[in-house]
Amino acid sequence: MSDRWQNRFFGGGPEDEEGGGYRPYRTGQQGSTLTFKLVPYPGSGEPVHYIPYLQAITIRLDEETHQLCLLCHSSQMTIFIEGTGLAELAEQLSEKRVRSIHQIDPKDYDHYRSHNLPMVTRITVK
Hints:
The protein has one domain (about 20-125). It has three helices and eight strands. The protein has helices spanning about 5-10, 85-95, 110-115, and strands at about 25, 35-40, 50, 55-60, 65-70, 75-85, 100, 120-125. Strands 1-7-2-3 form a four-stranded mixed β-sheet, with helices on one face.
């Protein structure tokens, strides 16, 4: 199976199939996935986390601090996501459409920040 088809059906990396650029998250149809992935930037050494949707998840967006907080009640996890353009991500999470969330590589910060593009700069799981 080619990488393009594998990415389309199974959700690949954060690269956009058309443009090859970074995307902070991937979505699917509502209810099409039972979990979503938290993916650190390549080479960070941090693990990928799989979070089940089959639990109560409280979502809190603080646009002043550019932080999204997810309280996962059954798994007793607290997830902090920092970045820009998080309102749309919060909306997609509330509809259970997000398949994966991708942290941007620090070397790409300046480009995305200077063009005011959405990005996830940090993911913290407690």
